[in-house]
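Lecture 7 notes: from sequence to structure.

We start with a single chain of 514 residues. Read the sequence below before looking at the structure.
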Amino acid sequence: MMIMKPLSLRSLSRYVPCISTLGLNSNPVNPISTFSRLYWSETVAETAVVKDDVETVFRIVSSASSTRNLKESLKSSGVFLSNDLIDKVMKRVRFSHGNPFQALVFFNYTNKRKGFYHTPFSFDTMLYILGRSRRFNEIWELLVEMRRKDRSLVSPRSVQVVLGRIAKVCSVKQTVESFRKFKKLVPEFDTACFNALLRTLCQEKSMRDARNVYHSLKHNFRPDLRTFNILLSGWKSAEEAEGFFDEMREMGIEPDVVSYNCLIDVYSKGREIEKAYKVLEKMREKEISPDVISYTSLIGGLGLVGQPDKARDVLKEMKEYGCYPDAAAYNAAIRNFCIANRLCDAEKLMDEMVSKGLNPNATTYNLFFRCFYWSNDLGRSWSLYQRMKKTGCLPNTQSCMFLTRLFRKQEKVEMGLELWNDMVENGFGSYILVSDVLFDLLCDMGKLVEVEKCCLQMMEKGHKPSNVSYRRIKVLMELANKHDALQTLTEKMAIFGPSTQVQERVENVVEIPD
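Now the structure, written as tokens:
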């Protein structure tokens, strides 16, 4: 009979020793979290995380029917819950679009054990999972709890993770108000946090919004090189980028390779290729070596001005300066040929990537999926998807959408269900976006058994089908007298609660105590 290891056994990798035995003074926040992370990680061998253990815990978190069931399953599993294992499980939950409620139960279950402290990775991943499902109240509650237990975990990275999810669905004003709340949460409300806000606005709002917020708050912080690199990174207007570049130098901040890359990027996107080349020359004059990002921007710009062959030559020329192209550089060159509808040349470049030891990634394949979609070429799309599976490359959401829309156009139910089952099994793509198109196909073809199964799979992963899809499924099931199946779906949908306005949820956040 197999003997299980009880979870109550103390582990030096995830518990801290008694303070009295170490002769340390007490600290109400986290008496020895810094000591435990530095000392014990260096002096005690970490228990190796077995892949099977990660899979076991992930399955428990994903399939538990209730909070009680999840906790009992963890206790009876005998799996050793180290920080390394927890990090890997949280990563699996994130990339498989797992159930956010069960992930939070798992996170809190491990967090409440005496002497245990989560890693920054698992904490920020939990924040991301909650933010993706727009559970902002739970985010603030978790932040307050972490401030109490281990304030060092609330970092500028945490600020960016939270603000990034808020900015996706809320106004700039609400995003800035949320940023101010972090003053009570982070150990140091400094320029690093300010930079996190600016990066969020650049990514989720507009460069103009970032510029306005920068000017309104810059007197409260000390802008540094990273501040200006963030502000330079997304401008479409060369004039605006040049203005920030000049302001940076007026403040005595010397530009680095990232700063110059931002200028090359804005010139390339603006089809001002000559100016981009001049920046390259200036970098060399200042003995700042252009990197692969510099050349990748230039390759993209050459494609925009209709010179894909010259862009391909850049891949060779950059090697003369000791800089070798990576997957992103090849993707930029491949994109140029795809835009020019020269797919044979694009495919040759992808083969060249492989010969150089570079694996095509989801972005590479997505460039081809886009072309095949617009040419309505399902055969080549499906062959490309099978090639991805063989190489172990998982499609991104865009690729899934191109495929699913083709399936709907050509009424290919079996292909649609195969892609969906791959998504469920391997955890890629957006269930919400793909399901809307797939469920339309299944309903059009009268596949109510299949659409019911897909709905249940989706909800087991913690994702609610859209109201539009659910209403259509409901009507068809009523017409087909599938009342039992409809009752099951209705009960599952009720778990998610009534629909609420996102902005109301953000405004009605947990009050942060002083």
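The first helix runs from residue 19 to 22. Keep this in mind for problem set 3.
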